[in-house]
Design a protein that fits this description.
Structural class: alpha/beta
Length: 278
């Protein structure tokens, strides 16, 4: 059986040594119903586990070569029999193992990954079927008239993504849609408003900001008791939280935060007037 470095060296031009690479696990997607009222089937996760091996990781689905960050060298589907999804299935997720070559330029990114700052990811893939949970028809055929997020009798309408045909890339992103897996799929403000009325998204954005501020305060070595920090940031609005996080990032990582783009993107998409999602 191949060990870790043998799997990694399948993609290198020369044989790398273990101290030259940084490896980390990442949960790409799962079978839980996400904020878009969509989920991957178990068979789709199993197919994606094979398709994603060798795929590159980038930022915000920007396919320019300079944004290539990491590469997946192994993947597996993990099932937790003690945990159930919203529709009663055993919870399963696609866990990938990625590597980066250690360089001076990615030292800060490695710190951010280890510190829990860079963790949310999104998958770019295609599927052949989008099955309605109510009528079991493929939404792409136009035969399904059910609306995602609505209930029909005792059945809640959501879409099951099945039959993956390709996996393009995976990205570090700012707006996760799948709660458990930290996966983002782009969604429109109109669809969000129909399904959640907007408020749930804004609350989630704000809560994630507070959690990352707590992490950054710890990394900075802040001597303020954690309870006082939580009480202080609990009174801040999203704009104030964003400013505080930027300030802490500059102190901890000695470089400007890139989250302003995420905030601007959220505003442009109508997700919130002054909120963004990590």
């Amino acid at each position: 059986m191949e060990n870790k470095m043998e799997k990694i060296n399948r993609y290198t031009r020369r044989e790398l040594k273990e101290d030259e690479v940084y490896c980390f696990p990442v949960i790409l997607c799962d079978n839980e119903i996400d904020r878009d009222c969509e989920k991957f089937s178990l068979s789709a996760l199993q197919a994606l586990a094979k398709l994603y091996i060798g795929k590159t990781g980038i930022f915000s689905h920007d396919a320019r070569g300079e944004n290539q960050t990491a590469r997946i060298y192994d993947a597996e589907v993990v099932t937790d029999p003690e945990k159930k999804t919203a529709d009663g299935e055993e919870y399963s997720y696609l866990k990938a193992y990625a590597y980066m070559v250690r360089t001076d330029s990615n030292a800060d990114l490695i710190k951010e990954i280890d510190g829990g700052i860079k963790k949310e990811v999104s998958v770019g893939c295609s599927v052949s079927r989008e099955i309605c949970s109510v009528c079991k028809k493929d939404r792409r055929t136009g035969e399904c008239a059910h609306r995602k997020g609505k209930s029909y009798g005792e059945k809640r309408c959501f879409t099951v993504l099945d039959g993956p045909t390709d996996a393009y890339e995976w990205s570090f992103v700012a707006v996760p849609a799948q709660r458990g897996a930290g996966v983002t799929k782009h969604f429109s403000a109109e669809e969000t408003e129909k399904t959640y009325g907007g408020s749930g998204i804004i609350e989630a954005l704000t809560e994630d900001l507070r959690r990352d501020i707590i992490r950054l305060s710890f990394l900075e070595g802040d001597s303020v008791p954690i309870d006082l920090t939580k009480a202080a940031i609990g009174k801040m609005d999203p704009e104030e939280l964003l400013k505080l996080k930027r300030s802490l990032e500059k102190t901890v990582y000695h470089k400007p935060s890139e989250l302003e783009k995420a905030l601007d993107g959220a505003k442009d998409n109508g997700l919130a007037n002054s909120s963004y999602r990590l």
